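Duplicate of #3305? Posting structure anyway:
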């Protein structure tokens, strides 16, 4: 009985360790800013003067890139529309 409990606990520890190694916070987080976008397959699909106009363009383009897009402040003072296409 004790041997079975040890085997179950050992396999649980190995599984938890394997999951901890495969899931990293940096892999799950979205890029923040234009410098981080070089590491991601995201492209800019336009620059807009206000966040509202950027969100309107992102919503209108969901037919092309789906619901995965976001607007981030750009260095030029407007907002950049990022999407995965």
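Output from current build:
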């Amino acid at each position: 009985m004790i041997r079975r409990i040890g085997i179950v606990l050992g396999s649980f520890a190995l599984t938890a360790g394997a999951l901890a190694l495969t899931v990293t916070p940096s892999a799950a987080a979205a890029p923040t800013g234009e410098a981080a976008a070089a590491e991601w397959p995201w492209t800019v699909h336009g620059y807009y003067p206000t966040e509202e106009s950027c969100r309107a363009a992102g919503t209108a383009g969901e037919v092309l890139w789906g619901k995965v897009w976001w607007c981030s402040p750009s260095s030029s003072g407007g907002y950049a529309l990022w999407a995965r296409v």
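Confirmed duplicate; merging threads. The longest strand covers residues 43-48. Residues 14 and 80 are 43 Å apart (CA to CA).
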